[in-house]
Design a protein that fits this description.
Length: 392
Amino acid sequence: MTSTDWATKDFYRVLGVAKDASTADIKKAYRQLARDNHPDSKPGDRVAEERFKAVAEAYDVVGDPEKRKQYDEMRSAFAGGFGPFTGGSRSTTGGGAPFDLSDILGGQGGGGGGFGDVFGTMFGGGGTRNRAQRPRRGADIETDATISFNDSVDGVTVSLRLSSDAPCPDCSGTGARAGTMPRVCPECEGVGMVAASVGGAFTMNETCPACHGRGLVVDDPCPTCRGSGRGMSDRTIQARIPAGVKDGQRIRLRGKGASGEQGGPPGDLFVNVRVSPHPVFGRKGDNLTVDVPITFDEAALGAEIKVPTLSGGPVTVKIPAGTPSGRTFRVRGRGVMRKSGSGVGQRGDLLVTVSVQVPAVLNEKARAAVHAFQEATGGSDIRANLFQAGGS
């Protein structure tokens, strides 16, 4: 990301949040936008793909407290005083009082301070041209994992095969052919950044076009990586999917992404979890759901029925006399492991919804019994209230 990006892009607008939005609100907005525009959910949609990239870029800055602080200071500086610059090292304020641009950017007398320290931190400058190349964090990796319904409730360890960027094995990441070494870039003197004009008012550091930010130039490139020093690495890792994970949830595994450069830390691995449906059970938050059929006599007279559970043996549920179809009973502690709030380490409940079944075929004895029941209850009209309420 260049200095112009920091200065001109409104990352808050990209995420659709206010400048003073909380970290939680920013994360919520990012997750929603990333889910809506992810290439997997909208394959072939170039607009959604570009939108996804823009959202990721914005969240990388304002989603990080330290970067967000620097970004806000940068934007405030541009909005609050750099507009009237005329391009020289000295200019005047609206009242005609002269000031020296170097006082703002580098402090007085070269003593440091001012916005120069901020810009140097953000863009890799800081006035030091001969410093060593900075370590770079490895890229984040994203992959998908499909697990069973039972594993989503209890948790599971899965094997994931990943392909990611890594140092070239033939040149050990130098980018130079075996027996040779890269040299310091003469354009940026090994810094990886060069001065570039921003709007004609002042200069900031940009990625060096000669070495693309590496600070090194390869004269005899490695034939395997063609001088980039990077290659693709295939590896298999064991990833723990926690108990209670939901379908579509995105899990972050820190340090499991691509390896860093120049001793930088590795990136993170993001696992998009897909949960296969269960033929019997469903899920509602931390609760499991199950639909259980009951007979007419069980609903009318009451009964005790056996109900299956996802893990462990069946449980007995008491059905009171006169239970209507669609009534739900709660079996406590037979749901999904809770992960947040005061219920950490506790399970949700099993919600049992009963459905009264009407037999499609009756034998003579059963038919006679139903007729007897009809005669015994024939004096009441269960639909009378419908006509009274309707005015008919």
